[in-house]
Amino acid sequence: MSKKTYFFLILILGSLTALGPFSIDMYLPGFPAIAKDLHTTAAKVSLSLSGFFVGISLGQLLYGPLLDKFGRKRPLFIGLAVYILASAGCAMANSINDLILLRVIQAIGSCAATVASVAMVRDLFPVKDNAKVFSLLLLVVGVSPMIAPTVGGYVTDAFGWHSVFWILTGMGVAILIATVLWLPDSYKPDKSLSLKPKPILLNFLQVIREPQFYTYALTGAIAFSGLFAYVSGSPLVFMEVFHTDGKVYGWIFAFLSVGFIGSSQLNTLFLRKFSSEQVVNIALICQVLVSFTFLAAALAGFLTLPVTIAFLFFFLCCIGYTYPNAAALSLAPFTRNAGSASALMGAFQMGAGTLISIVISLFEEPSVVPMVAAMAGSSLLALSVLVFGRRFIKEKVEVQQGADAGVMH
């Protein structure tokens, strides 16, 4: 594979993967405006974010079998079409309940892009390169939290929150055109797979019985849910507790994304000397230490705006190391049903994120503590799952192969 082809594939797959995060982040600065316009509260508006997570969780399981039976492109096209229509619907929503429902549908469409892009990493690249490719995808994905809230803040201020969803509609159209014209077929449809409930469940059961899969998929999902706690809680924390406006919040969100992006890219350097398993271990321990120190400071009332930003920065750095390695280790055992495996991995991730965001939305009084407590709890639980689950992995996948590590065989 030439460097040009490699770069182009990463760009398209990264755009597909970034569609969901962009849909999550871009409208966050508009929470107060949406609440005012739809005659509700910011906490109720945050349920539209939870609804998005619910849609992605359900959609992951829907698209996994479809991607394995019909190939990657046809289900992807259908999902993108659903996303485009739902995004336009969000732009025209007149009530908070309509917005929540449309966000669920929008998410179901967007997660076709997420599941397909993860499965195509396994299709298009050798297993030994998967951790590196996931890190590169995170670089593309990571641009969205830097750009989306900042742009969303200015767009909402100038044109209103409805315009944010019209922009997302346009993005969906552009990505659909790019995938139709330039994304190669990466997987031959497996027509032997049945879409009846029983065979689908048996296929998922076969995947989930693999100890390496459930250990690292659950570990990565629970650890990553700390990011959802941050995304769900940060609008209230920064705009209600610390009284920043939407534009400032967007710039803070962009700055914090640097930690997540930077660590995910430094991951490729660490993988030259350490295995993916070692990086996950160290990153999770650091995540636990940072989050519990953060929680202690919050409970003691020591948090200022700069201190809160600093703690969040280091916390997101830890997640940037955990996710690509956990994802690569989760998918390593699979070839034939990589679509189902990636769907389950995504469902675990979004399911954990949904639960944590719903819990945070229940706290209507502005406070930093619920968000930070969720981060600390998820970090400790992820570490516990990793320690416990590794006992059942009889044949460990080695992830160090020569000087160009980050590879698996």
Automatic annotation (TrEMBL):
Protein name: MFS transporter, DHA1 family, bicyclomycin/chloramphenicol resistance protein
Record localization: Cell membrane
Pfam families cross-referenced by the UniProt entry: MFS_1
Key words, A-Z: Cell membrane, Membrane, Transmembrane, Transmembrane helix, Transport
Cell membrane recorded as keyword: yes
Lineage top rank: taxon: Bacteria
GO cellular component, one term: plasma membrane
